[in-house]
Design a protein that fits this description.
single chain, 19% strand
Length: 226
């Protein structure tokens, strides 16, 4: 955890935020309420926290670590997940804290406070993102726990071949098993439906088709850079 400071105008009036900060994020955590929006543009898959082994959901934005195929110039033109919006900001004892040394803060960025000490649109977006994560993380953990209970999460094999002869294999990713979902007893399926989990499961599984688009983007850039 980086060194944090509680955010206030007196201490951080000159703080400026670089919004073109998505270029190296290839996998961004999302919460359940974001999945219907994010899934229109990105594959949504599950992976495991390396420290706890717990599953979490994320938007796949790159096929290789450190590369975002949707934000070549660092700007993300499409849906921007809350975890990406709040880069450099954290929730500490119910208040927003900031890590001033985070590379997201640059002299030429967007101001966080205006001259009157009020939150700028950039900070308002961060505040909204923190609210989304605050309510969404526990809800998503509960949803994933139900998926695990019903054995609905399974590993997914993604191997991609490119025109230059290279091959990429994406490891450590998981998806919803529609076969297992369809085999659920009626009572369990009805419970997932009433909780909204069933909709999320189908949306997540359908979003995998975006992987093909990402492979085309990478293939085009291989030859554009040659």
């Amino acid at each position: 955890m980086p060194e944090l400071e509680l955010l206030d105008y007196q201490s951080h009036s000159s703080l400026r935020l670089d919004l073109a900060n998505a270029g190296q994020r290839h996998f961004v955590q999302v919460v359940s309420e974001e999945i219907p929006l994010a899934a229109t543009e990105y594959p949504i898959l599950f992976t495991k926290n390396p420290d706890t082994g717990a599953f979490y959901a994320g938007a796949v934005m790159g096929l290789e670590a450190g590369t975002n195929l949707f934000a070549a110039d660092g700007m993300l033109p499409g849906y921007r997940p809350a975890d990406l919006v709040r880069q450099g900001f954290f929730l500490h004892e119910g208040r927003i804290a900031v890590a001033p040394g985070d590379p997201v803060f640059v002299p030429h960025g967007k101001p966080v406070f205006d001259e009157q000490g009020s939150a700028t649109p950039a900070l308002q977006q961060v505040q909204h993102a923190m609210q989304v994560l605050g309510r969404g993380l526990p809800e998503t953990e509960s949803m994933i726990a139900r998926f695990v209970e019903h054995r609905l999460i399974e590993p997914i094999d993604i191997t991609l071949d490119f025109d230059d002869g290279s091959r990429l294999q994406l490891d450590g990713l998981y998806s919803t098993s529609l076969d297992s979902l369809h085999a659920l007893p009626d009572e369990a399926a009805l419970d997932l439906f009433r909780r909204g989990d069933l909709q999320i499961a189908y949306i997540q599984a359908a979003s995998i088709h975006h992987i093909r688009h990402m492979a085309r983007l990478r293939n085009e850039r291989l030859f554009a850079d040659a």
